[in-house]
Amino acid sequence: MMDDLPALMKKVSRITFFFLSIGCLGWALLPAYKTVFGGFLIGAIGSLLVAWHLAWKTVRIGEAASGGRRPRSGFGFLSRAALALLAAFVSVRLLEFNLPATVAGLIAAPLATLLLGILSRRRQGGHATDERGEKH
């Protein structure tokens, strides 16, 4: 599974960059909605940063566990929440963009990860119970 993480992050990054390009096109083609598209863009960038941070932490924990060391606990969720709040603050307070659009952008990378996971399960033809070793 850990070997799949770089490939997954590459796919998530590509999907998020696709969303960012659509946001840039919307910004250019519909100037009346710059606050909406701008908020979405800032949120999507924040979402990608949060996803990269989570992947980095996952790799660090995996390396510690495989090396026989106890993983150092830290502020995993707090740091990711702080990144999301920073993106929202910059978007809404400093750049005066749309808050709901920023929140929509913040869910871009998790949504891409979810969709990739669902598609991966369908391609494998597996069921949720396969992982626990239950018999059908």
Textual characterization of the structure:
The chain has helices at residues 5-29, 34-66, 76-94, 99-106, 108-124. It is mainly alpha-helical and 136 residues long.
Features:
about 75% helix, mainly alpha, about 140 residues
How helical, in percent, are the residues?
A: over 70%
Number of strands: 0
Mean pLDDT: 87
User: Outline, from the CA principal axes?
Assistant: flat
Q: What is the radius of gyration computed over CA atoms, rounded to a whole number of angstroms?
A: 18 Å
Structural class: mainly alpha
Low-confidence stretches: none
- Strand-residue proportion: under 5%
N-C termini distance: 24 Å
Summarize the main sheet: none
Q: Give the quaternary arrangement of the chains.
A: single chain
How many helices does DSSP assign?
5
- The SSE order reads HHHHH
Summarize the structure.
By secondary structure, the chain is mainly alpha-helical.
Detail the topology: elements first, then pairings.
Layout: H1 5-29, H2 34-66, H3 76-94, H4 99-106, H5 108-124
Helix pairs in contact: 1-2, 1-5, 2-3, 2-4, 3-4
